[in-house]
Amino acid sequence: MNMKYCTLCGAQLRENARFCNMCGVQLYSMSAEPLMCNKTEPEKTVSPAEFNTPRLETLHFNSLRDANNALTDIKDISQISVNFETRNSYGLLANHSKISSVKIDMVRTGMENDKLYQIAEHEYTHLLFVDRSNISQKLQAKNPAVKIISAHSCTNSRGQAGLGMMIGVGVQSNRKVFVLYSTDRNQPIGIRF
């Protein structure tokens, strides 16, 4: 038996019905040609409530530039987190950390907002540098117009010898900091390190 469905609301129709018993739409024109189609299943229509249902999305990038370009285009993020994979780049005087991949987990709502999410990076180079303080709190104090969401850092040292090796301090230390922050999309502001 071939079931018929209303093309407007998708309700199942009685055989030889001239009007939909659910929404009242006329199913046949005055010339008696059917206005509905004979199909086995109703079309799935997306209601506004379903469209705005939050959904988790994960994106992977090989560079910060690609990640920031994608984040600039996405305007419906409600929650976000980021993970970095780094690799060491060995230099003559110092080791450095380079991005090998960026993984972004976000909850998208389907409703645009004015927040712009971006990732910034900065490298500190110091002699006899040991700093285990909270990066996020320091950056938030320096940048009150933005919201620091998270900060990740990795440290590479060169020249650990003698006294430096005994107390666990590198002669030269390079600390790479990656910061996820949000700002107003209409007046974007960068981060001061």
For the biggest β-sheet, the strand order reads 1-3-2
Rg:
29 Å
Give the amount of beta strand, in percent.
35-45%
Helix content: 10-25%
Q: What is the molecular shape? A: elongated
In total, how many beta strands? 6
Largest sheet: 3 strands, antiparallel
Integer average pLDDT: 76
Structural class, judged by helices and strands? mainly beta
How do the SSEs run, as a string of H and E?
Answer: HEHEEEHEHE
Pick out the low-confidence regions. 29-40, 160-165
**Alpha-carbon distance between the termini?**
71 Å
- Provide a count of the helices: 4
Which terms would index this structure?
elongated, 193 residues, mainly beta
Describe this structure as you would to a colleague.
The protein is mainly beta and 193 residues long. Helix content is 14%, strand content 38%. It is built from 4 helices and 6 strands, in the order αβαβββαβαβ. The N and C termini lie far apart (71 Å).
Q: What would a concise description of this structure say?
A:
The chain is mainly β and about 190 residues long.
List the helices and strands and how they pair.
Elements lengths: L47 H4 L3 E7 L2 H10 L3 E14 L4 E14 L6 E13 L7 H8 L4 E12 L4 H5 L4 E13 L9
